[in-house]
Design a protein that fits this description.
Number of helices: 9
Radius of gyration: 25 Å
Distance between the termini: 79 Å
Strand order of the largest sheet: 3-4-5
Number of domains: 1
Strand content: 5-15%
Order of helices and strands: HEHHEHHHHEEEHEEH
Shape: globular
Number of strands: 7
Structural class: mainly alpha
Largest sheet: 3 strands, antiparallel
Length: 243
C-alpha cells in the first residue's frame, strides 16, 4: 500500500489524538515509540515546524485499531514483538490488515502464551473471544477498499452522527476541535456529519449546510411570530416616547 493513504498528512499528533479521543500521551508513544522501541504508527517524518501534519490516514486507522486492542486488554507498550511477527505473515501495515480480526488475534494470543517476549502482553482478566468481539465491533466502522485496506474511517465515539475521515481530507485544527465538541461551523467539505461515500475516487459527498447567519442570508421569518403583540385589556398603558 503506497498511495495517498500513506503519503498525505491529515493532522499533527495533538489534533489526531483529540480527533480520535485517544489520550495525548498514549498517541505520542505510539507515534514516536516507547523506550528503545520503534513507532507503532506509520507517521511521516517530523519537519522543523512541529505543527505540520505528519499523521496520514493509515496512521489514523492504525491508532484507531490500537485503541480497540487496548480496550480489549492488549497492552500497546508490549505489542511491538508481536507486531513484528504479524508483519512477517501479513505485511507492513498489519494493524489495518483484514486478517487482524481473525488470524491476527490468534497469533497475538498464542504469542502472549508461548513466547517469553509476550509475557504481560494481554491482561489476565480478558480472553481470546473477548478480544475478538471488541476488535470486530471497532472494525465495523472501517470502510475498506478493494485491496482490503481501509479507505474511510467512521468515528465510532461520535455515533449516531456520521462523521467520516477520508484519506484525502484537508483536516485543520478547527475541524478537529469542532467535531470533537459536536459543533458545526459553516460548510466544510472535508469532514461533515452528513457525509456519504460517493464519486469515482471515493471522496465524501456532503449535503449543503444551512447558511450561516453571520455570513449568509437570514432564513425567512414566520409572519405569525413576527407580528407585534397586542396589549391585554386592562393592562398598563405604554408610556409615550419622550419628545
Amino acid at each position: 500500500m503506497d498511495d495517498i493513504r500513506t503519503r498525505n498528512g491529515l493532522l499533527n499528533q495533538s489534533d489526531a489524538a483529540r480527533f480520535l479521543s485517544i489520550p495525548q500521551q498514549a498517541f505520542n508513544h505510539w507515534a514516536r515509540g516507547y523506550e528503545r522501541g520503534r513507532p507503532l504508527l506509520h507517521v511521516l517524518p517530523q519537519p522543523a515546524e512541529h505543527r505540520m501534519a505528519t499523521v496520514p490516514f493509515v496512521a489514523m486507522a492504525e491508532a484507531y485499531v490500537l485503541d480497540a486492542l487496548r480496550a480489549a486488554g492488549v497492552k500497546p507498550r508490549k505489542i511491538r514483538p508481536a507486531l513484528e511477527r504479524l508483519q512477517r505473515e501479513y505485511g507492513q501495515y498489519v494493524l489495518v490488515a483484514p486478517e487482524l480480526a481473525t488470524d491476527g488475534i490468534d497469533v497475538l494470543w498464542d504469542f502472549s502464551k508461548t513466547s517469553p517476549e509476550g509475557e504481560g502482553l494481554i491482561e489476565g482478566s480478558t480472553g481470546q473471544q473477548v478480544i475478538r468481539e471488541i476488535v470486530t465491533d471497532y472494525l465495523q466502522y472501517v470502510v475498506r477498499a478493494e485491496d482490503g485496506y481501509p479507505s474511510m474511517l467512521r468515528l465510532r465515539h461520535r455515533a449516531p452522527s456520521k462523521i467520516i475521515i477520508p484519506p484525502s481530507a484537508n483536516i485543520t485544527a478547527t475541524n478537529a476541535r469542532a467535531v470533537r465538541g459536536g459543533r458545526r461551523r459553516g460548510c466544510r467539505p472535508a469532514i461533515r456529519r452528513s457525509c456519504a461515500v460517493g464519486g469515482p475516487a471515493g471522496a465524501p459527498r456532503c449535503r449543503p449546510a444551512p447558511p450561516d447567519w453571520r455570513g449568509g442570508p437570514r432564513p425567512p421569518t414566520d409572519p405569525a411570530r413576527s407580528a407585534p403583540r397586542r396589549r391585554r385589556p386592562g393592562g398598563p398603558a405604554r408610556r409615550p416616547a419622550p419628545g
